[in-house]
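Example (one chain per record):
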Amino acid sequence: MQRLSQPIALAKGGIFISYAAEDRERAKALAHALEQRGWPVWWDRKIRLGESFDEAIEQALSDSRCVLVLWTKASTASRWVRSEASEAAARGVLIPVLLEPDVRIPLEFKLLQAANLGDWHDDPAHSEFQGLIAHIGSMLGATGGSRADRTQADGQAGTDTAAGPAGAGSRPVRPSEQGERAVTRDASATERMRSGVQRSRPDRRVALALILVPGIIVTLGPVVLTGWRTPTRVTLDAIVDRASFRLAGDEPVAVPERSLAFRSLSMENFDRVVFTTARLATGPRDQPRRVRIGDTTGRQVVLRGAEGYRSMFMIAGLDPSAPVAGRVEAIAAQPQSRVTVESSSESTRALTLQIDGQELATNVLPVGAVEITVNNASVDGIDGFASNDSGARLEVALPAHSPYLQIEGTRPSFTLGVTLRQSDTVSLVGRASIQDIELLKQGTRGEVESALIAASEMRYADYPRIPAIELRAGDFVGLDALEGGSLNRLESRADGPGIALQLEGTAGRLETSSAGTKRDRRLTMLETLWHGSRAIMLLVVATCMLSIAIGVYRLYTLMSVHR
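Predicted structure:
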């Protein structure tokens, strides 16, 4: 909004009237009424030629001890009037005056009592005008003196060669018409300049926000992000002697990956073993020679596990020089079943496979004649052989047309044990999705021990630049809340003891313990952002620092202006 704003000097302690250009005549009437009381009043907003418009207004406003803001619909929309009202309120010298009945005072000034002069027409007896006079008198503390005194004081304050001396209480000499038209033409440009110089309290709040908000982000952000652990995807390469995991996914997994050659085999917790004989001899366990049964060609023999007992049968080759006694087919491990593999530290390379949560179904193909030892099981199909003979041994040769033993079971858990050849590397699992994994075992005294038996390594799969975690034999590794878990390798090694394992997955809990010291190995959010989105993180930090610099500059500018 344009204003005819040409201020003159104001004696210290006078009255400043802030109004919109549209309300000039009413402001003039009020100013003359106050001047008649002997008070110096600044209202006409005239400047002498060559005088700075902004500096004159600021000087007059700062010199006043009482600021009357004339609120109308026009003035409430004026940034000048609002700025002058804010400055006066900050100094505690503001008196709001209503000149229109329905005007809405800006929110920040509503708490101050306003004088209602909407129906005042130069009447000195008007009650609201009398109250205004009393309020002004209490703020100024005394009358302004005679008109002659004020004229002398104003003459001492400054003279102008073009306009001559002017008292603060009298109408100043106008500048030339050409200067007045120039001021009017540049009013909008002057207002923009003034708004850039004079800052209000909202400007200070914005400057402080530009400093404090990014400052908090830069200082407290790293602290919060360092304490925030996130699920972390890792790859674990380990040598263990025991691993227990639960299968995930929708498809069964072959365990072992292919049929497995063995020197000896044992099966626990079976229900039936069915085979057809070509030759058969039987005898008790402690009998040095076997009693050969007559013609047994084509005879079907059934070994039945005793109900309520842990039934077991064992197979070994009769020829000790033979490299293998037979092969066992892979078992289809179903999703949700738990698979446990365990290797012996002995030189015999014994391997145990236990599956919980599913039925047993596999075949064993002997190579040549084998010896079968039965415990807690009955033998059907052999004449004169006592049922449920727990100490029986069978020497069996299978016919060419049916050279296998069919093994079945409906029990919720079964165990397969094999003795491997020294030269064989056996793949137990090719690749399988898993829900969890446990790398623990029971010690000789019943205590829980780590299954790691050699130096191992754990890496952060998504961040190869982060150094790998070196693990020693006996260190504990805990992985819980595993998502996307995958066994990429699980094999019995021919070049050393134990089982080589490679695991990959995202762990919600990832801990290691070495020599009694437990450590959380999940990455912090700060590490995740730094190694995964470093450019974005640096951009955020740079933006915060730029915001702080802008805020400091704006705050410094505001303080300089108000000084």
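Caption: The CA atoms of residues 134 and 326 lie 118 Å apart.
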